[in-house]
Design goal:
Low-confidence stretches: none
Largest sheet: 7 strands, antiparallel
Shape: elongated
Strand content: 25-35%
Number of strands: 14
Order of helices and strands: EEHEEEEHEEEEEEEEH
Distance between the termini: 50 Å
Length: 240
């Protein structure tokens, strides 16, 4: 997982002129650009890097600075993005199954929007207690990703799983809700059952010791070491 900056699948877009002019003027202008990267800073919205036709590079612009339709009307940032970046540790993944799928999401203002999936941002927890995400991404109920969507109205959005629905014409054929889903609060791990331990052996083909059944790990360790030595001492059957 990258720290601070990541490459993203390039996006042909327009950047709004007012974002190039510190919001002072040029609100009626748009310029072609290619968005190629993203910066993740805690307590700030996801920020994007782009290049313009004159060769100029620009760093760290919010998603509402861009559109993919030249006539798209600017929308408030909090209508398009639900959460700020959670930590400096971020990844961008374009899942093949989701690529170009239609998505529908509900905004803060309870407006329904449709769009096309582009890629997904996901964050790893920070161990710095000064960060807003201090270990929260490790908690099942707190983790959130951000799907980047090219909206039908020409703007872009970043939405988590619980705010959107995916359309797959060959699978998502049920319009009614199958089940009312709840946040998962369970941290799943396969290594917390005290019943099982591994023998202390160098033998790669080991089994586990079942302490609950009364097995002795010391005895099993000795058994596997003896097997290892027995196989090592056997003469090779390979023909020369």
């Amino acid at each position: 997982m990258s720290y601070l900056n990541i490459p993203i699948p390039p996006i042909d877009a327009f950047v709004r002129g007012n974002f190039l002019r510190d919001q002072r003027d040029s609100h009626d202008k748009k310029f072609p650009c290619i968005i190629f990267g993203m910066a993740s800073i805690p307590a700030q919205a996801p920020l994007f890097h782009f290049v313009m036709q004159d060769g100029g590079l620009w760093w760290r612009m919010p998603i509402h600075a861009f559109s993919w339709k030249e006539d798209a009307i600017e929308q408030p940032l909090d209508e398009l993005v639900l959460w700020d970046s959670f930590s400096y540790h971020v990844s961008a993944t374009q899942f093949p199954y989701l690529k170009n799928r239609n998505m529908t999401f509900i905004s803060r203002r309870r407006e329904k929007y449709k769009g096309r999936y582009l890629f997904t941002l996901d964050w790893g927890a920070s161990t710095d207690s000064g960060d807003t995400d201090y270990l929260f991404s490790e908690y099942p109920s707190q983790h959130k990703c951000g799907h980047v969507i090219a909206m039908d109205n020409g703007n872009f959005a970043i939405q988590p799983n619980n705010r959107l629905l995916l359309h797959d014409p060959s699978f998502t054929t049920k319009e009614d809700v199958v089940i009312n889903r709840m946040y998962n609060n369970t941290l799943w791990t396969a290594e917390r059952n005290p019943r099982w331990v591994t023998p202390e052996t160098d033998n790669m083909q080991y089994d586990h010791t079942d302490l609950e059944a009364g097995e002795s790990n010391e005895k099993r360790s000795k058994e596997y070491d003896e097997k290892l030595n027995e196989n090592t001492d056997k003469p090779s059957k390979r023909k020369v």
